Amino acid sequence: MSGMGTNGANQTDNGHIEKMNAFLDRVTEEIVGLREKKMVREEMEDHIEDEAFELMDEGMNESAAYVEAVSLSLIHISE
User: Do 20 and 41 touch, CB atoms closer than 8 A?
Assistant: First the structure.
């Protein structure tokens, strides 16, 4: 499955995925329970990927779409 995103998106440069994973690590680092941490992480990852796919459908390239989706998640968290 090398070169594929968690939802099957083809990736030639996965730097944006690494950044998304680092963001998710930071957001969930304070959650104590492993089950709860996994659940929150999966929910956030799904949200980010859904947003990124919408942005790509609107014409944004994959890397920029993931960066924007993570930025939007930061906004939602701070509200």
Answer: no
